[in-house]
Amino acid sequence: MDTVQKTDPEVARILMGERARQEATLEMIASENYASSSVLEALSSSLSNKYAEGYPGKRYYGGAEFADAIESLAITRARELFLAEHANVQPHSGASANLAAYMAVLAPGDTVLGMDLSHGGHLTHGHPSTLPAKVYRFVSYGTEPDGSIDYEKLEALALKERPKLLLAGFSSYTRSLDHGRLSAIAEKVGAVSMMDMAHIAGLVAANGLPSPVPFFDIVTATTHKTLRGPRGGMILCKREFAKAVDAAVFPGIQGGPHMNTIAAKAVAFAEASTPLFHSYAKAVLENAKVLEQELLRYEVNLIFGGTDNHMLLLDTMSSFGLSGKESQEMLEAAGISVNKNVIPDDPRSPIDPSGIRIGTPSITTRGMGREEMREIAMLMCEVLRSSGKKAIVARARKRISALCRAFPTP
Ligand code: DSN
């Protein structure tokens, strides 16, 4: 930061402001985390300057010796970490990874069967305002009132719609998926099977959750959420899809790969294979379970009934009489960062929906555990039941500041 401060104090002020905000806030947005100093160092390395369109050994630019070395290393590490037959580490994001995966196996107009956004799916799984939805025909499946997926119903829908791609995965579904069942349905209807494991990639890497990799033809992920690497995406797939996937990433939808990010991905893959990271993933899951139990004790309505992973979806309308936006703002005033989120078949708009999503990856990285989860659940409920009374919010803010000081960011 010292150099930016000298050359561009205006930018330095903003960067320091964000660092201070992260330090002083309980980050409970389920998709965020704190990357290690090694990951951040690799990100700001001189590989940021390098163009290397193509793949290791077949580049369209000279001087790619170290670009080749780092990408080969990242690929090897990704394959070993997830026991995957093939890995592509170039996608700039999860959205790019999904788009490339679609392009690899679909023709325009083909049908994709994916999870409804309001039931926990993701924008890139067929929301009408996205590019994939303009190119392919998306049909969605949902969850049952008890939070489960009715696989017989899903199979009947697949038999009726005959998708070319059966898409599993989520960004706000808090329960486990039956990987075997999903891939069997895909096989039965002759579809390629794909799982977007963006949210749980770190938990899968650390054997905290069952791996979808052996079951699905293609698995996409981001590298920053529970995996705690740099912002970015990747695609794992069976050998038979390798060529099509690589061609879809480059030149299909991307130009030059971000070699510094690929270096940071390699660092994160190595970190994720350590016993320390395995303990971290276990703690993420345990903390989510404690939060679940505490929130249920405070009579909070948890969508899907609770959690099997690192996140929880709270129906704030029925629990506190507050919209997701109001809840997000009240918690932010108390120093807790969350995101408003739709709930299944939400009658409200996504800009002010009925719920909030919370998660434990960041607060667990800070070292918080069972006791802190209990206190956080209590403070959240106090704030959301405070009717905005300044004294209650201020008291919670003070407690949260103390927690943040006691558990610094890495
Ligand atoms: N933004 C990611 C999330 O919050 O789940 C997905 O786009």
General description of the model:
With 410 residues, the protein is an alpha/beta fold. It has helices at 2-7, 9-24, 37-43, 65-82, 94-105, 131-135, 151-161, 179-189, 201-205, 242-253, 259-272, 275-297, 316-320, 324-333, 361-365, 370-384, 390-406; strands at 26-27, 54-55, 58-59, 86-88, 111-115, 137-141, 165-169, 192-196, 218-222, 233-237, 311-315, 336-337, 339-341, 355-359. α4 (65-82) runs parallel beside α11 (259-272). The two termini are 16 Å apart. The structure holds D-serine (DSN). Residues 31, 122, 171 line the site of D-serine.
Question: Which SSEs are present, and which pair or pack?
Answer:
Layout lengths: L1 H6 L1 H16 L1 E2 L9 H7 L10 E2 L2 E2 L5 H18 L3 E3 L5 H12 L5 E5 L15 H5 L1 E5 L9 H11 L3 E5 L9 H11 L2 E5 L4 H5 L12 E5 L10 E5 L4 H12 L5 H14 L2 H23 L13 E5 H5 L3 H10 L2 E2 L1 E3 L13 E5 L1 H5 L4 H15 L5 H17 L4
Parallel strand pairs: 1-12, 5-6, 5-7, 7-8, 8-9
Antiparallel strand pairs: 2-3, 4-10, 9-10, 11-14, 13-14
This protein binds D-serine (DSN).
